[in-house]
Write a structure and sequence with these properties.
The chain is of the alpha+beta class. It has 11 helices and 15 strands. Helix 3 runs antiparallel to helix 4 and helix 6 crosses helix 11. The structure holds one RNA strand of 88 nucleotides.
RNA sequence: CGGGAGAUGGCUGAGUGGUCGAAAGCGGCGGUCUUGAAAACCGUUGAUGGGCAACUAUCCGGGGGUUCGAAUCCCUCUCUCCCGGCCA
């Protein structure tokens, strides 16, 4: 959620920063004027309420003294109506304001480059060199192993669902276990959470109200399948005031993720790149504001080192303003090399949302005497499915076999 | 899913219509005593928003209603606990 106070007090600055995200400026103007109107109306309402409270107390006193109450009673009744009217007005304005404000994306960090889309993202560095092959490397769906069962996955549900069998299934589980252990060694506590979340939870992390179409909703219930573990894990501490000694909280979580992929018809229809359900090991951190940049770097390093340990060539990319997600103030994507496609593709995405999610989810900590909003960060440790097929493509041999990376051997 | 009980401040727990934002105890903080600590004793201590401040509004699970006035009465939703059914 946008900081309305900041918008009121420093409008030009906020507008300028949000230009990077192509936000409709008239919406910002509207938010500002509505919020000022709200403030005015609230002041009037409060004064009326104060009057009402004082007179109500008098009523009790008069009653004891046996005084005539009729006049006071009618005064109170009249005032009551005024209060009620103003109160509904205030509530309406508040609702209007929160609806508009909740659709405004986060303010990009200073360090985020200008740009419209993916083309303007900036490569930070490359790690490891892509492998060379003495033969033409295949894409994962062409590899002659029975690890991925696309047809039967579709039979069970619909397109964009895949079943794993045999070594494929086992490798997926090995990856999950390996990643969780890897993260735990770096100080991320493992958590396990529900894959179904309610509306408040999805609103806290910013998926709702704007992106309901991307979510699978349970029929007849106000519940949704989670699109990422970020949602439940970040919301673990929703509506809480944390003790400063608890921070930073660093967590890692394996979950299945469910996405409708509504806007991506025709993209990545082959193979396991883009699925309605996929496994992911996630990193989530909750920090003091002054620590969040450090923790962000730690999370990026954690994901990058994980790829390195698996021997997978990858690069780090800083997203530009136009490509940044709704809740993110800053995002670094990790892209792994796919020999079959001859290109890098996203396998992890680490974001710092600053206090954007914290304000929505009301996650705060006590600092001295004051309550302050935390910063929340999230990132894929790695998307398991994409890691699986990256291993398949990068470790394929001319005879059609696939070598298992040595770090995974003890997990197989 | 059926039957019963309940939801109050950091915790335990009183409070059934009028200075109740809420007794008491615990905990926390400050102090006395002590070489230091414990114990004892004294004092203090809810949250959020607005305001430089005085102050003020809101909050007793959520929402709605009755009333001049609701923690207290009514409706509704959610959640928790106990009994039964079902079940990994």
């Amino acid at each position: 959620m946008l900081d309305i106070k900041l918008l009121q007090n420093d409008f030009d600055n906020v507008r300028e920063k949000l230009k990077k995200k192509k936000v409709d400026e008239t919406l910002l103007e509207e938010i500002k004027s509505i919020s000022l109107e709200l403030k005015e109306k609230k002041k009037i309402l409060e004064d009326l309420q104060a009057e009402q409270n004082a007179k109500s107390k008098l009523f009790g006193v008069y009653a004891k003294e046996g005084k005539n109450l009729e006049e006071l009673k009618s005064e109170l009744s009249q005032n009551k109506e005024k209060v009620a009217l103003l109160n509904t007005q205030v509530k309406e304005i508040e609702e209007k304001l929160s609806i508009i404000a909740s659709t405004i994306p986060n303010i990009p960090d200073e360090s985020v480059p200008e740009g419209a889309d993916e083309e303007d993202n900036i490569e930070i560095k490359r790690v490891l060199t892509p492998p060379t092959f003495s033969f033409a490397p295949k894409e994962h769906w062409d590899l002659d192993v029975d690890w991925l069962d696309f047809e039967r996955g579709v039979k069970l549900a619909k397109s964009r669902f895949t079943a794993l069998r045999g070594t494929g299934a086992k490798l997926s589980r090995a990856l999950i276990n390996y990643m969780l252990d890897f993260n735990a060694k770096r100080g991320y506590q493992e958590v396990c959470v529900p894959y179904i979340a309610n509306r408040d939870t999805l609103t806290g992390t910013g998926q709702l109200p704007k992106f309901e179409n991307d979510l699978f909703k349970l029929d007849g219930e106000d519940l949704f399948l989670i699109p990422t573990a970020e949602v439940p894990v970040t919301n673990l501490f929703r509506d809480e005031i944390l003790d400063v000694s608890m921070l930073p909280i660093k967590m890692t979580c394996y979950s299945e993720c469910f996405r409708k992929e509504a806007g991506s018809a025709g993209r990545d229809t082959r193979g396991m790149i883009r699925q309605h359900q996929f496994s992911k090991v996630e990193l989530v951190s909750i920090t003091k504001p002054e620590e969040s940049d450090l923790v962000f770097d730690d999370m990026v390093a954690c994901a990058s080192d994980l790829l390195t340990s698996l021997g997978l060539a990858h690069r780090l990319v800083m997203l530009c303003g136009g490509d940044l997600g709704f809740s993110a103030a800053k995002t670094v994507d990790l892209e792994v090399w796919f020999p079959g496609q001859n290109r890098y593709r996203e396998i992890s995405s680490v974001s710092n949302t600053h206090d954007f999610q914290a304000r929505r989810a009301m996650i705060r900590y006590k600092d001295e005497k004051k309550n302050r909003l935390v910063h929340t960060l999230n990132g894929s440790s790695l998307a398991v499915g994409r890691t699986l097929i990256a291993i398949m493509e990068n470790y394929q041999n001319e005879d059609g076999s696939i070598t298992i990376p040595s770090v995974l051997e003890r997990y197989m």
